[in-house]
Amino acid sequence: MVEIINGIQQIGIGVSDVKKVFNWYRKHLDFNILLFEDEAVASLMTQYTNGKTEKRIAYLSLNMIGGGGLEIWQFKDRKPSAPRGPVEFGDLGIYAMKIRCKNLKEMQAYLKELQVADLTEIDNVFCPNFYFTDPFGNRVQMVEDHYVFCKQPSKNGGVLGAVIGVSNMESSLQFYRTMLDYSILEYDNIEAFKDTTKGRFRRVVIKQERKLVGGFGDLLGPTQLELIQVLDSTPVKIFENRLWGDLGYIHLCFDVSGMCSIREKAKKNNHSFTVDSANSFDMGDAAGHFSYMEDPDGTLIELVETHKVPILKSLGLFLNLKNRNPNKTLPKWLVKSLSLHRVKKDR
């Protein structure tokens, strides 16, 4: 089977209160489709949790305008650790998530009313964007993007991508190009930090070709990664001496088809899977095959081949993807039925 990267399924966020985080993003950024909530033991992730199986609760929420979702992840029996110091632009790992936004000025004004922290002015370096920090300490970049899967009365859509700190730009570009089809170079430039004592950094923005897209590809939409390499100082690793699931962005997850083929390609290119659920995972209402690999700096990339998702759980209606043609996207009306999972009140 030919491997297909359908898009970014979700970005994982380690939190201390899953309901509080879900409710904030539901209310203010319209991630109001709660596709699943699951409580279980992360038994396959022990190499990233100090050899101990950790209980966790996870919510997967979507914005139906289009884009990836949020996997909001909380330890059940352990207080999550925060970074030792402020996460700096260019530190190794996921610095920020990118969210598509059709009207930056309106969104910026709305967030200003909310008094979010570290709200920046709109920048036009490679495309219009601005940053803010959510109430839980996570850096978010709003990026002007007009892709729409489903029209909604919202200023923004779902996850467009991520800003990732790297130590060697060429090796990172090779990884993301070879393993995840990010072969379109949008922007490549050496810039100076506004605080000139920090020196320079190289910024590269890449996109996927999307020659062939299947499954939920139309909902997930085009994606964008922004790689940052600090040139005149040594960045720190964001998750150094911390566990997967601790506070911050814990992984970037891609919806894929042809997991077995991707596994072989990863092995051939010296990026072998570090975690592999083999035949299946079961997250209560959803099921499939998931794997993890690391980029050259150890940033965790999750791959998910979805087998089953709930449509209307109360009536026992589930969408079985195992026997569908992976080369074709799902009918739009069928994907829109996920709107049945919309949550209108705080949980």
How is the secondary structure organized here?
Elements: E1 4-14, H1 18-29, E2 33-41, E3 55-62, E4 69-75, E5 93-101, H2 104-114, E6 129-133, E7 139-144, E8 156-165, H3 169-180, E9 184-192, E10 200-207, H4 217-220, E11 224-230, E12 248-257, H5 259-268, E13 275-276, E14 281-282, E15 287-294, E16 300-312, E17 317-320, H6 332-336
Parallel strand pairs: 1-4, 5-7, 8-11, 12-16
Antiparallel strand pairs: 1-12, 2-3, 3-4, 5-8, 6-7, 9-10, 10-11, 13-15, 14-15, 15-16, 16-17
Organism: marine sediment metagenome
Keywords: Metal-binding
Pfam family, one: Glyoxalase
What's the short version?
The chain has 347 residues and is of the alpha+beta class. The protein contains six helices and 17 strands.
Task: Tell me what the structure shows.
- The protein is of the alpha+beta class and 347 residues long.
- It has a single domain (4-341), classed as 2,3-Dihydroxybiphenyl 1,2-Dioxygenase, domain 1 (Roll).
- The protein has six helices and 17 strands.
- The protein has helices at residues 18-29, 104-114, 169-180, 217-220, 259-268, 332-336, and strands at residues 4-14, 33-41, 55-62, 69-75, 93-101, 129-133, 139-144, 156-165, 184-192, 200-207, 224-230, 248-257, 275-276, 281-282, 287-294, 300-312, 317-320.
- Strands 1, 2, 3, 4, 12, 13, 14, 15, 16 and 17 form a ten-stranded mixed beta sheet that branches.
- Strand 16 and strand 17 (317-320) form a beta hairpin.
- The radius of gyration is 19 Å and the shape is globular.
- The N and C termini lie far apart (41 Å).
